[in-house]
Amino acid sequence: MKTFNSIFCLFFFIISIPAIAQKKVSISSPDKSLQFSFRLINGSANYDILFKGKNIIETSPLSLQFENENFDGNILMRKPVFKIAVERYELPVGKAKYISDTYNEVVIPLEKNSDNRLTINLVVRAFNHGIAFRYEILKQSTNKSFVLQEENTSFQFKDNPIVHALFLPNYTSSHEGPYTSISLKDIKNDTLMDMPALFECSNKVYVAITEAALTDYAGMYLSKKNGKLVSTLSPLPNQTVAKVKASFPHKTPWRVIMLSDGIGDLFENNIITDLNEPCAIDTSWIRPGKTTFPWWNGNVTPDTLNAPGNNFVTQQYYIDFCARNKIEYHTVVEYGLHQWYTDDGVGFSPGPNNDVTKPVPGLDMKEVCDYAATKGVGVRVWVHWAALYPRLDSAFAIFERWGLKGMMIDFMDRDDQEMVNIQTEMLQKAAAHHLHIQFHGAYKPTGLHRTYPNEFTREGTMNYEVNKWDKRMTAEHDLNIVFMRMLAGSTDYHLGGFRAVPDSLFKVQYTRPLMLGTRCHMLALYVVFENYLQMVCDYPAAYEGEPGFEFIQQVPTVWDEIKVPAAELNKYITVARRKGNDWYVGTINNNEEKTVQIPLSFLSNGKYSAEIYSDANDVAINPNHIKKEEKLLTGKDKIAVRIAAGGGSVLRIRKIAD
After folding, report:
1. Which band of pLDDT confidence, cut at 50, 70 and 90, is reported for residue 227?
2. How many CB atoms lie within 10 A of CB 411?
3. How far apart are CA 629 and CA 625, in angstroms?
4. How far apart are CA 49 and CA 518, in angstroms?
């Protein structure tokens, strides 16, 4: 893969500004729609943000609370340095392939007027669709290291926006739950808000807050204090006060504020990856794709299969299915609620004698991988992080010798600095052994797949695994995941359930789980969701010969371009993704039937042939029914698609040769 940064700098300086002057330092986005302004008020740092001339975030304090000193008050500002730069790079896994984004930057040197002379740079970057800033903690006159107790980055909204977010009881979390929509003023103080969070302002400006480049630092949340939102960091294990321990110099992650008056713009921009470091690994071996995940369907095999279990014949059955249907990967997980590796723990929690390098008796993992290789299929495994991490180096070396291609690492449930560093270490060492990683039971993505493209996806979502034990997964929830969680990036979901039933017939069953919503809704999720390792979770007989399965076989998982031609918050969204010359367009709906007008202006000149999958007229009775038709289209057309309640639609659009 070719990765490069081309940076063009234009420097100009302004005079040093004494703290008492309260003079603003401002920076605008390249298109001038966004403006970030910084100033000192009584020796304390503050900022505000304008969007198209209107104040969105106003007079928001910035401070850092260290163990021995609070970086707030008596702050001096030195000479700011401005530049214009361009981020150019290629993503082997991403929602777009070739990125070229211009931004304006200012570095604002700040110094605490005290004996320690603590020095911090506030680095601000303004893109056309967002503002990002971070703290560079440079030095202290007397110490070589520091303990950060809190980062008090605040976000003071001008009005009272509607907040769409996941609220959590504490920091120990898999980040899986229902989303809440509530006005900011009605949120109780100290309620822990996960990121990303979406804010719907009264003037129809949408603001999303999240973070980028989370490395060697604690994950950030938001909490309401005295009417404004303030950051709060995940504490280190067995700590309540210490959040980050590091040596000077040190950089925080980027605090990202995306803004637009069109909700679709928030998904089309690349600000999260723009803010990450360039690719750090060889990518010649990277192979994104789709994967089985038989745990979801209950490890269903045909009655004719001899002695199914944690053994070769069961894996062979699924590998052969992948080979017949162009599914890139098969995942070995468990059978009979016992993981594929040796473990004496209870359930999936590791016991004292677990060993991820020793398959259970009867399962020869190298034999499985060798067989899969003859079929052009890669094999991956599920593993509990606490079983893997103590023997990380030896396990990865053995996995590579077996011929494994990657893994799902599960039950991490933390984002403190220690766990963040563990995940970075896993990515680095996995890359050295040509292994990709799917983080499950993990925090949001922060764009690290630019630096380590072997990070294929992250969960941090309540998703269709829940259908195995509860009735909570609705079309509305899917839309919430798209409009909120997907703002951060790749979103892992247990896709592919092909047994949809009307709401009145839904029942919980652990094996062969049922689905709400229509089959077209399920097909559309393969396009709407950003995910470089989409699951195909059902069993082979549920797919083969079934209408719509051919679309799952065809749809890519990485893309060259993304457009959002139509969307209305929490009602529906249409996402168009290009791979080569082909466009895939997916629309998912809430529980209100409607007709969506999809403009095709993203198509280049010429004529196109479109395969259109839509909800059949009788989906209220049989939600698995699909209507399939073909049309000739051009970029000047709009296509009207009728979408059922809980329904969806997909188009595969191919250019006709001149």
Report:
1. confident
2. 17
3. 13
4. 42
